[in-house]
Amino acid sequence: MPLTDRIIDISECGADLSVRHSQLVISSSGAEITVPMAEISVIVISHPAVRISHAVLSGMCSSGGICVFCTEKHLPAGMLLPIEGNSVQAERFVKQAQSPLPTRKKVWKHIAREKILSQGRLLKKLTGDDKGLNFMADKVRAGDPSNLEAQAGRRYWKALFGNAFRRNPYAEDQNRLLNYGYAVLRAATARAICSSGLHPSIGLHHHNKYDPFCLADDLMEPFRPIVDEAAYQIAAEKGPTVALDKETKKTIIKSIVDKRFDAQGESRTLFDVMTRVTASLADVYLETRNNIFLPEF
Fold first, then answer.
1. What fold does the segment set 3-80 form as a domain?
2. Does the pLDDT of residue 88 top 90, yes or no?
3. What percent of the chain has pLDDT over 90?
4. Which residues pair with 19 in a beta bridge?
5. Cβ-defined contacts of 212-217 (< 8 Å, 24+)
6. 169-177 contacts at long range (C-beta below 8 A, 24 or more positions apart)
7. C-beta neighbour count of 55 within 10 angstroms
8. CATH 1.20.120.920 placement within the chain
9. Burial 86-109 (b: 16+ CB within 10 A, else e)
10. Which of 106, 137, 242, 250 could hold 116 in an S-S bridge, CB 3.0 to 4.6 Å?
């Protein structure tokens, strides 16, 4: 993976995080690991005995990185984002907040359709049958008033993990793998949103007043099957209650950072593609583009 796409997970043991000569220093059990701050995209912290210096937090924000703080169940509890992600973000915040409903509905149609198509492609790859999701995707209208995204999801989860499976963040099965992968994906999306001068809490479709990352939840939707495939492969090999240990997390992270997308004839990483997605949404808000860019994969 590109050096600037590094994801660091700290969950196996306690550690002290500090900065020395623009390097993140991770000290644990008498050993030290150093990583250039400029190369880090995301730090995921879920171990309760982690101490972080002010220099780490301010340094991550200055370099455009994201810190994700998780519960013991690896559910995201908080996220630290840069305040200044773009030199013209004040103008873009206004345009984003004032975006008319028909525009938001049009963009959400594109996102919902691509999510269903992505799910269908994964089912076709893993089971040989898309379970009619391609057909459902073609029926999505502006704003998805029929909620085909949710209907497709119910069909998708049963086909992927069996009839008994339910998407429940607190369940002790494949859901734990999904929780962790989605936390990383959400952080990568939020990072791209800030870099494009947009605000992650002003969503297109998600509007939960308790969710400060509604836009990240919107834009990551078509990319969720990347995590789903990793969870499927891990559960198929080791069972749904496999330990969410260092090796399992490494596999999930690798599936995210190793994924390549076709972006206008070029092979690009998730981090690069997500920046293009958010930049294209900014152009939609500024009325210089008709709809957002979403890659083929």
1. Ribosomal Protein L15; Chain: K; domain 2 (3.100.10)
2. no
3. 68
4. 24
5. 212/79, 213/79, 213/186, 216/186, 216/189, 216/190, 217/186
6. 169/73, 169/75, 170/73, 172/241, 173/235, 173/240, 173/241, 174/231, 174/232, 174/235, 174/240, 176/73, 176/74, 176/244, 177/227, 177/230, 177/231, 177/234, 177/235, 177/242, 177/244, 177/248, 177/252
7. 16
8. 89-285
9. beebeebbebbeebeeebbbbbbb
10. 137
Which residue shows structure tokens 């171990």?
47
Per residue in 155-197, pLDDT (tens digit) is 999 999 999 999 998 999 999 999 999 999 998 999 899 888 8
Q: Is 1.20.120.920 the CATH classification of the domain at 89-285?
A: yes
State residue 3's pLDDT score. 44
Q: CATH 3.100.10.20 in the chain, residues?
A: 3-80
List, for residues 66-78, the tens digit of each pLDDT value.
Answer: 898 988 777 778 8
- The values of phi and psi at residue 109, to 5°, are -55, -45
**Between residues 49 and 296, the one the model is more confident about:** 49
Residue type, 123: L
